[in-house]
Write a structure and sequence with these properties.
By secondary structure, this protein is mostly beta strands. Helix content is about 5%, strand content about 15%. The model has no long low-confidence stretch (mean pLDDT about 75).
Amino acid sequence: MPTYQYECEACGHEFEALQSMIEAKFRKCPKCSKNKLARLIGSGSGMIFKGPGFYATDYKKKTSSDSKIEAKPVPTPGPCGSSCSCHPH
């Protein structure tokens, strides 16, 4: 359920309310009891995945060390095999 922010145009009282998307807007101010509430447009918040079904590594930002792969030379065997001393490798 989204959180909506309200402000009373009569007294300036501000509050947030957790409401269903299909629920009607609040109209009456809980502080001054006038029908002057306005629902404000907010930026919202990012989704947060928590619980046993999600792993910390699923959405973790990659660091620069994660993208670096060290290239190691692979020894190539000579014509007589990898342990011969008769040919340079």
